[in-house]
Amino acid sequence: MKKLKLFLILFFGYAILTIIMTYPVVFRFSSHFMCDGGDGFQNVWNMWWMKKSLMAGTHPYYTNLLHYPAGITLLFQTLNPFNGLISIPFQFFFKMEEVYNLVVLFSFVMSGISMYYLADYLLDRKLPAFVAGIVFTFCPFHFAHGLGHLQLIAMEWIPLYGLYLLKTYREDSKLNIILTALFLVLNSLCSWYYMIYCFVFTAIFVIFYTVKCGGGIIDNGFLKRLGMVILIFCVVMSPILMPMLYVKMTQNFTGEHNPEIWSADLESFFVPSGISTWGRRWFGGIWKDWTGNTAENSNYLGYIVLILSLYAVIKDRRCHLWAVSGLIFFIMALGPYLHIGGKQFSVPLPYLLFHRYMPFISFTGVPERFDIMLKLCMSVLVGYGITNLNEIILSAFRNQMRSRSIKTIMWGTATVKIVFNGILAVLIGLEYLAVPYVTTKIEVPSFYRQMATDPKNYGVIDIPSRPVTLYMATIHQKSLVGGYVSRPSLKALSFLDQTPIISTLMRGKPAPPSKLAQTLAISVFADFNIRYIITHNDQHLQFLEDILQLPVVHRADGITVYDCH
Fold first, then answer.
1. Residue 548 falls inside a structural domain
2. pTM of the full predicted structure?
3. In whole angstroms, what is the distance from residue 91 CA to residue 45 CA?
């Protein structure tokens, strides 16, 4: 009962803070998406597809609703099935705006709670642990990826993996082994990045305690228990991992990121980025020069957090694992070469070695995302720093209050702790402030809803292909020719490149002569059952109307629709 009461207190505490820190979402909850106009809509489609595929009994990692007619594998899509699964019950009763926003808000609340549990286990101090949760869940990384990376917003399981890895090390418990494996699985079902980061942290953990204990880590059976964790993980995840390995070996994919572009700029750790309230107002002249974009270069540490972390490292030997881990993740986030002020220097960094010789790291390609693991470590360090400061302040307070009654001292001590920790929490929250939270309202053209009433299935060409096109696909529920996926295979793209008329519309290739184009269009549209072409600008107007002479069936709401039959 005490555990449930504590969880409810934490839940409502972090929920209230989330409402404040994500202003004005509470007033736009039903009308806006908590994202910008980019990748967020891909994740809306992901959630919708997870429900549709499971309800229909089809495989969620393959679809022919994208890259119709052949379809495409979603094994390398940022599918984040965990978010999709928890969204399914809500999709029956709520609008997609509300469903998406609930998942985002859930991540903010649960990330704070999970960090609290990790910090409280290490510190055995409630208030510092609560502040550690604030540092983690309201860090700039969380807000920045809130622009649309739903898979990276879901960072709530990382601290719990760290917690149960520690418990597995310290205790010989089968339950801890199972829970460690469970949280590793949950991280993997949110983001493959987080799976990799958990393994990297595990490697650091093993090396650290092996060095510290002089080989004692092997004697206490931890490696055996860790082996069981990995075995359980591999068995549970094998239905996904084995096909991924096979497909990766047999097909070529595009869309991989260049780590030299997506490396953290050294300045970004010390200057608020464009996601920050203060960064937008005062520091645009600095962050606009960094490589990457606002979603990826928001690595600001915060000076309160930095000072508390450094204080902890100096004062408390218990936090050395987190200091060492944080330093390693900081260096990894810098990428293969040092970037300062938007300029790349020919200074090779350790990430370059991993990128060249470890395929699973090179396939990710965005080293600055290691920042979330740095924030994990610094959240713990902040907890240690506050704990040590609490002891100093409370000791001085008790010395001043020696002549008072025990009851007065107890009440005074509690008040001092709450006020001091509260002030630190407010200062950290102000440094990390990112209001107004970015939201997007989408008006759906009436023709998309009209298509949804048609029971027939057919192909639709919606150009230009953008993330919002995927959201529209959740409305009309027809098959898209092409479609935005994270890692499209060259095999899937070959249809767009090699099919006449489609290659002109979707890949910008030269159009055939007029009469030949008309003949080819009739054949292609009939053979592949493509019913409509939807355009959002006049880019192909002459080709569609003058050369192909397709009839216009709808011209309103910012779109023009051509009937291909």
1. yes
2. 0.94
3. 12
